[in-house]
Each structure stands twice: as structure tokens, then as C-alpha cells.
């Protein structure tokens, strides 16, 4: 395979790795739930979140590429110790969410085969581990993410088409919404570029050697492509759910995202949903493990040399916790709040780094990107604070 072909595959693979890391069981549930509460007006929330996602991700990927350093190393140069704090947040959040991702994969295999969710989770964990047993694990991960991404989107497009959503109303309310929900915006932005997710593709490009100022046009294109891939899945699922909700169908409270699949195709629809949630979950397992380990592998040459073994260990721990304890709901809620906090912290540090010559040399960061990043940082910081105040109030009230 030629060098240019390898480079192109890595750029596409990084986009799909980030996108499929974002599209997990939580992504499916959130999209279905907010569609039920906001109906066609959820289109506006999706549009706004896409713009905010691009603003955040362009800044992060470009500064990582031009500095040729991982996010935690950049953060440590901005403020000594900040990188270790960021790494701790990412790893704790990644591990907790990976328990949920493994659970989603187990549910998918349960729908597809009838195996118990715990057995399905163990099998899925073994498949994810298999990716990192390859000598060319990065290339295998890229190809697997692309394949699963295409399968998810194609199957959901079929269901959306069968659900016959009110496309005219959806288009109109995307620009003139009847109702708004600030928490929905935070949840979508946090769920797409929060926590470890936005770093998945950026760190993958570093590992593939795609870095430096000359690579910035390709890196920018790949970062936007990643958001658009995730957004296509979000829009298609929104339309599928909107189609059945508009017909007066109530979503299954236990698994709201499964309702349009079952409604349009019965038992076959549940099998399709099983495949979609399995693909969404297992790619998120891989992305969370890969990215979380990338945040501490630089601490020791031994960890760096044996990174694939550490990634496998991360997946084993996530799978074992789900198989023995299940999904600790309170922990996942708490870490969900934590994930909302990670974005303003990480993006804020990246924006400061963009203007430090010891990190980026004589590179001049575009002013409009900085402005977009500041807007996202401020908005997410305020809304995350509101969420924490509500959470603390709920505990003490």
C-alpha cells in the first residue's frame, strides 16, 4: 500500500474513530428522548450543536497537530500539573462510560442472539480486544470503525425512510423552533465532543504521523468530517423517531431508541436495532480504551511500548465490572456531569496554548476559530455549572 494511500486511510479512520466513539448507547438514547420531548424543534438543537461541535473540535485538533503533542502534554506546558488533572478526568470518565458501552454491546448481542447481556458483553469485549492483538492495530481499528459506521448509518436510514417522518415540518423547525431546551444543547455537545471523544481522532492522527503545520488543511478537513459523520447518524435517528412520534406512538421508556425500529419492521426491526446498538457500542468501547490509555501512556516508556496491552487491560476491566456488577447508574450520572466539565477545561487550555510560542512556534491561530472556541467554552462552562448546582441541590434537598 502506498504512503499516500496509508495517509488517506488514517485521515478517514481518525474521523470515523471520533464519530463512532461519539455514537454510543447514550447517544442513541439521548437522541430518541429529546426527539420525543421537543418533536421537530429538536432539529434546531441538532443544528446548533453541530456548529458548537465544529468550533470546539477544529481548535483542539489543529493545536494538537501543530504542536505535535498530545493534549495532556500541551496542558502541562500551559499550566504545570494541568495535564495530569485533565488525564485523570479523561481516564475516570472513559472507564465509567466504557462500562455503559460494554453494556450496550451486550444488549445488542442479546437482541441479535438471545444471549444474556452479560454473556454478550464478554463476547463483545473479546472482539474489541482482538483488534489490539493485530500487529497493525491502528489500521485494524480504522477499518473496523469505518465498517461499523457505514452499517449503523445505512440501517438507520432504512428505518427513517420507513417511518415516513414529516420532513417539511422538521426542516422548518430546524430554523424556526417552537421550543428550546438548554440542557439538550449541553447534552448533545458534551456527548459529541465532551470527555475523551474529541481527542480520539486527534491522538490517532498523531500516532499515524499526520502532524505539523503542513498537515493542518488535512487535519481541519478530517475534524469537520468526523462531526458530520456523527451528525448524519444523529439526524437520521431523529427523523426515524420523529416519524413514529408524529403518528402518536409512545417510545419504550426502557429503550426509547428501539421504538422506531420495532414499529416499522416488528421483530426484524429489533434485530436491526440490535445490530445498530452493538456497532455503536463496540466502536465506543474501542475508542474510549484507545483514547484513555493515550492520556497516560506518555508517563512511562514502558507503558508507551506496551500500549496495546494497557488498552486490552482497560477493556478487560470495563467488561469485568459490567459482567459482575452491572452498570452503576449513580456513577454514570455523576461522570456524565464530569464529562460536561471536561470540555470547557480542555478547550480552555487548548485556546491558551494556541497563543504560546513555546507550544506552537510562530503559528498564527485564526481569530474566528479562537472566537468560536471561546463561545463554546463559556457556554459549556455556564451550563455545566447550572447542571452541577441542580445535581448538588438534588442531593441536599
UniProtKB/TrEMBL annotation:
<feature type="transmembrane region" description="Helical">
    <location>
        <begin position="227"/>
        <end position="250"/>
    </location>
</feature>
<feature type="transmembrane region" description="Helical">
    <location>
        <begin position="120"/>
        <end position="137"/>
    </location>
</feature>
<feature type="transmembrane region" description="Helical">
    <location>
        <begin position="308"/>
        <end position="325"/>
    </location>
</feature>
<feature type="transmembrane region" description="Helical">
    <location>
        <begin position="183"/>
        <end position="206"/>
    </location>
</feature>
<dbReference type="GO" id="GO:0005886">
    <property type="term" value="C:plasma membrane"/>
</dbReference>
<keyword id="KW-1133">Transmembrane helix</keyword>
<feature type="transmembrane region" description="Helical">
    <location>
        <begin position="82"/>
        <end position="100"/>
    </location>
</feature>
<feature type="transmembrane region" description="Helical">
    <location>
        <begin position="144"/>
        <end position="163"/>
    </location>
</feature>
<feature type="transmembrane region" description="Helical">
    <location>
        <begin position="331"/>
        <end position="355"/>
    </location>
</feature>
<dbReference type="InterPro" id="IPR001046">
    <property type="entry name" value="NRAMP_fam"/>
</dbReference>
<keyword id="KW-0812">Transmembrane</keyword>
<feature type="transmembrane region" description="Helical">
    <location>
        <begin position="367"/>
        <end position="392"/>
    </location>
</feature>
<dbReference type="GO" id="GO:0015086">
    <property type="term" value="F:cadmium ion transmembrane transporter activity"/>
</dbReference>
<feature type="transmembrane region" description="Helical">
    <location>
        <begin position="38"/>
        <end position="61"/>
    </location>
</feature>
<dbReference type="InterPro" id="IPR006311">
    <property type="entry name" value="TAT_signal"/>
</dbReference>
<dbReference type="GO" id="GO:0034755">
    <property type="term" value="P:iron ion transmembrane transport"/>
</dbReference>
<feature type="transmembrane region" description="Helical">
    <location>
        <begin position="270"/>
        <end position="296"/>
    </location>
</feature>
<keyword id="KW-0472">Membrane</keyword>
<dbReference type="GO" id="GO:0005384">
    <property type="term" value="F:manganese ion transmembrane transporter activity"/>
</dbReference>
<dbReference type="Pfam" id="PF01566">
    <property type="entry name" value="Nramp"/>
</dbReference>
<protein>
    <submittedName>
        <fullName>Transmembrane transport protein</fullName>
    </submittedName>
</protein>
